[in-house]
Amino acid sequence: MNRNDTSPQFELIRVGIKEGAITTMQEVIRVMGIVIAIDLLKIHHKTLTKKMYNPELFTFADAWRLADILGMEPEDIMKLISREMKKNKAVK
């Protein structure tokens, strides 16, 4: 899978992020499928699970890889992570 992947999950994620229907990294990974995410992001299952529940643990490199996989701009992924972190901070 690469930047030009047209799989239904990836299209759903792209549209969901742009339209605001997907608002967390947990949702992104769940729609993508955890096994696919582990394989494409080259992240261990436990590490990915930690990052899903703690978006501040995602690195710039993770965001760039995910953006490339989804065919999006890295800034879109970083904004998603940033909004989620702000929301989580407001809840705590």
Summarize the topology.
Layout: H1 8-19, H2 25-32, H3 34-41, H4 45-53, H5 60-70, H6 74-91
Helix pairs in contact: 2-3, 5-6
Structure notes:
This is Cro/C1-type helix-turn-helix DNA-binding protein. It comes from Chitinophaga dinghuensis. With 92 residues, the protein is an all-alpha fold. The chain has a single domain, classed as 434 Repressor (Amino-terminal Domain) (Orthogonal Bundle), CATH 1.10.260. The protein is 72% helix and 0% strand. It has helices at residues 8-19, 25-32, 34-41, 45-53, 60-70, 74-91. Helix 2 (25-32) packs across helix 3 (34-41) and helix 5 packs across helix 6 (74-91). The protein is globular, with a radius of gyration of 12 Å. The N and C termini lie far apart (37 Å). The model has no long low-confidence stretch (mean pLDDT 91).
In short:
This protein has 92 residues and is mainly alpha-helical.
List keywords for this structure.
about 90 residues; mainly alpha; 434 Repressor (Amino-terminal Domain)
- Tell me the strand percentage band: under 5%
How does CATH name the architecture? Orthogonal Bundle
Give the helix tally.
6
Mean pLDDT: 91
Poorly predicted regions are none
Kindly state the number of beta strands.
Answer: 0
Tell me the span between the first and last alpha carbons.
37 Å
Structural classification = mainly alpha
Protein name: Cro/C1-type helix-turn-helix DNA-binding protein
Organism: Chitinophaga dinghuensis
